[in-house]
Amino acid sequence: MQLGVWISLGAYFVLMLAIGFYAWRKSTSSSEEYMLGGRQLSPSVAALSAGASDMSGWLLLGLPGALFASGLVEAWIGIGLFVGAFANWIIVAPRLREQTARYDNSLTIPEFLGKRFPSRAIALRTISAVIIVVFFAVYTASGLVAGGKLFESAFGEFIDVGGFSDYTVGIWLTLAIVLTYTVVGGFLAVSLTDFVQGCIMMLALVIMPLVVLYSGQGSGFSGAGETLSQVDPNYLSLFDGLTLIGFLSAVTWGLGYFGQPHIIVRFMAIRSLKEVPAARNIGMSWMAISLIGAVGVGVFGRAYAVRNGLEVSDPETIFIVLADLLFHPLITGFLLAALLAAIMSTISSQLLVASSSLTEDFYRLFLRKQAGETEMVNVGRVCVVLVALAAVVISSDPNSEVLGLVSNAWAGFGAAFGPLIILALTWSRMSGTGAVAGLVTGAVTVIVWISLGWNSSFLGGPGVYEIIPGFILAFVAIVLVSKLTATSGEYRAIETKAQPAE
């Protein structure tokens, strides 16, 4: 590995650690500061933090790889995600920012649900916290797997730690950097590093497709189109081979946004309600540019590979392959840092949200109700480490199928929390029992659907993405059970609480 690559990566690591120690000095004196940055995120930081923590390595590995292998039809997932993210900013962001502050300054999603529905507070906080911790341990593990495989494929021959595989060293190196700035600086460190990482990711996704497009013989849009039409006349079609079920399974990924704790917690931390629209515009612009860039990497990367006789054994490594082939070592290091940024931004966000639930919804709720602020911050740091260690155990097998569980975890969160969050924020006649019913119904439906294999094959046809039945049934369960169980007194309590703060 050339010196320039290590210089770029070293500068990136130093910057992440410096941000962590800056945040430690600025925002770790209380639980609210450690877990939500004191609700003082600027629109730009909140927007890019939400985007970077969302996309992960999928943006630079999974999406380009799918397009490289199968063509433009794979872009429907990206389209569905864009629409879902926009709806999330419109429906959830302003209401969640306002209501979590008003409901006794709720610091976590389970805590908000418990205070919104006090008659079922313990059940809601406990069940939702368990779901968050379990799913995020797996989610975090998937990020560590991606980090381990990145180091194994890009740096393996240059890393030699006796007794440990390149993959294992990659996992621990990735975790060490993330854990340091997350434990030390808390939510502010995670959000500020996410902002920087989001900028790096977007810049990489602008540079890469443009360079690839105009590199080699027969370059440019027309040359790429001609090359790809020779590979497959329908390669650039958005509709070739697309079935109704396939279309729905792709675009309904967007439903998951309403229930992703590591994304919607950013809405809670925006500096003020009036700054939500500015954050939305920044976030959606970033997402549009990044998604288009990722599509370009996959499509133009395929054209480049065909023109130059390049064999790519794993389509998901096309970003790494092109970074190594086409750029000066300093730029290659920057591009690999962008990939690490995508992985690390999501890991840090998931670790902190899982830690927050353990701290607020287990430790304070059941063990130390009168715990002081310093104690809670220190407990939060310990919980970050505990969740990280659990993720390391899950990710220890490089041949594990943890990465395949990411879509399942996304569906699980989306179905369990999505309808619950939407209705809790918008429907005053929702009951606590209805909230519990929706939470359990969504999670169980996703688990059962996956267990029966219906996400792979349903009634003899193509599989149906598990978020579709999970989201629908959870929504129905909340409405029906609420109508059957809510009392007039509960209505009045909810409506009184829903009045604007003085």
UniProtKB/TrEMBL annotation:
Keywords: Amino-acid transport, Cell inner membrane, Cell membrane, Ion transport, Membrane, Sodium, Sodium transport, Symport, Transmembrane, Transmembrane helix, Transport. Coiled coil: none annotated. The keyword Iron-sulfur does not apply. GO terms for molecular function: L-proline transmembrane transporter activity; proline:sodium symporter activity; sodium ion binding. GO terms for biological process: proline transport. It is a multi-pass membrane protein. Its main location: membrane. Belongs to the sodium:solute symporter (SSF) (TC 2.A.21) family. Catalyzes the sodium-dependent uptake of extracellular L-proline. This is Sodium/proline symporter. It comes from Fulvimarina endophytica.
